[in-house]
Sequence to fold (635 residues):
Amino acid sequence: MKNKKRHSLGQLLLAGPYTVWMVGFIVIPLFLIVYYGLTNKSGAFTWENITAITSAVNMKALWLSVELSVICTVVCLVLSYPLAMILANSKMKNSSLTAFLFILPMWMNALLRTLAWLTLLENNGVINTILTKIGLPTIHIINTPTAIVFGMVYNYIPFMILPIYNVLVKLDKNVINAARDLGANAVQTFLRVILPLSIPGIISGITMVFVPSLTTFAISDILGGSKILLLGNIIEQKFKTANNWHAGSGLSLVLMVFIIVTMVISSHYEKDGESANVW
Amino acid sequence: MRKVRRVLAVLLILALAATCFSACGKKSSGDDQVVYVYNWGEYIDPDALDMFEEETGIRVIYDEYETNEIMFPKVQAGAVAYDVICPSDYMIAKMIEEDLLQPINFDNIPNVENIGSIYKEMSEEFDPGNKFSVPYCWGTVGILYNKTMVDGEITSWSAIFDEKYADNILMIDSVRDAMGVALKYLGYSLNSTHEGELEEAKNLLIEQYPLVQAYVVDQVRDKMINNEAALGVIYSGEAIYTARENEDLVYVVPDEGSNVWIDSWVIPKNAPNVENAEKFIDFMCRPEIALLNFDYITYSTPNVAAQELIEDEDIRTSKTAFPDDEILHRCEAFVYLGEEMDEIYNAKWEEVKSGQ
Fold:
């Protein structure tokens, strides 16, 4: 958008719907959240909805949310990086088709996929039935944080694979060849060339996994048996059951702060990643 | 690529324009008869709607909600004007208090005589004088248990607080129901507003937390059918369905008593098509239609004429579907406790759920 040529009427017209969309469905709702978050039921200004986060119930939910999202993000990263490397380096003609296959499950509704995990993990579920049939001890992870992490990793792993794959596939092979020519072994090449160059992909993957896991409530509801409250669940309850939009918005604002912090850190690292490029 | 983008943009504009036209068109077509119905999810036989449309020529525009609490703000805000809604007892009381409902002209609903008088008496608690509501479905809250997984017969709420059944209990995930069960077990009213009693109920539920396998509402059905748990707190309407699917399941209203609830048709104050709303309610009160709905949703019907039409004797005489007066005597209906009390209940329930 750097060219400052005058926009024709047609261009303005075409941009119109997009602007309406942005304002109507992003900007206005955001202002509404801020408004509700900072007022009480009679409409007077208050910090109460924000400071509510310090109550024991909310603090516990917040830390559990952060803990589970961090675990989920780390698991996703550990699983995705090797996979992305394999995909990027594969000699297959259709490596993009393989990558596509990993995205394919996303064509199905996320709730349905999570419900499928419920059927798999339940005490009398598919996995346990098979385990019992072949005489192995059964697993009991449904309604525990472990089950929630399972669900989160399964749902969000494509968001980690894709950006890393995208970075790796565009990596100039000459850089790697040069490193090897100059005497670096495979480990050194990976640690000092490939890994630093792929940091932008890793960072955007981390953001794209961490943020939705931090705010999820559907996955924790289904796989945690509503027994494990994440902050997302508390916010959902405030809106749906308690009919207290002010309290719900206040907590959402707190969560937004965490997300903004994540974004700031990631944008900072992305710049570092670029400056680390020794071209 | 540019071309594609341009085409896309044009398509977007067309789509926007189309939605505008259709939205505007809806309002202007005044002679087209419609009735806007807002009901619980899976709470009517779709055939009944078709039959109504065919007979009266009134088009039914049908929306669904999951809980009273989701429905209320939508109606209160008046953003969407419905003609007929089907809230529960305590919510009707709240809506009357907030002046959101209009009195029903029963002259236009002759079939209301099919509704049993006991249900009108029960309605007095939340709708004094039966001015605003026509009962549609009713039931109790109780325990559904699996014969093969418990010792002997279950007759008391104590079972769901028993360590013997640790990790085998499905608790109901709904504030008033859960608190109500605990209050009843402790021998209090489930409409208690006494701080000490509520605190006791909360502590009981916190003690129960480690024993609970999951907090559920809709999922209790499938989980009990799949033998996932030994006991579950459930609405009586689901019990008929689950017993059909898994014959080991037994429903009981515990001795300490429980909640009896009624969902009734009401007409909101801002209803645009009152006449059609009356026709709709009258149609739903016909014995054949009430029976059709009962067979489909398996929630007990207050329509006595329909009760007599039920062919299956086991169901017609079933205490689950139609508990006798002795059981009903032990039960209480929910009363709307006011906004302040709502908040206290919610805060206590949140503490329970977080396992503090």
User: Anything to note?
Assistant: Residues 56-243+258-275 of chain A form a domain with the MetI-like fold fold (CATH 1.10.3720.10). Residues 273-279 of chain A have pLDDT under 50 and may be disordered. The interface with chain B takes residues 13-14, 16-18, 20, 56-57, 60-61, 122-124, 142-143, 225-227, 229, 234, 237, 240-244 of chain A (CB under 8 Å).
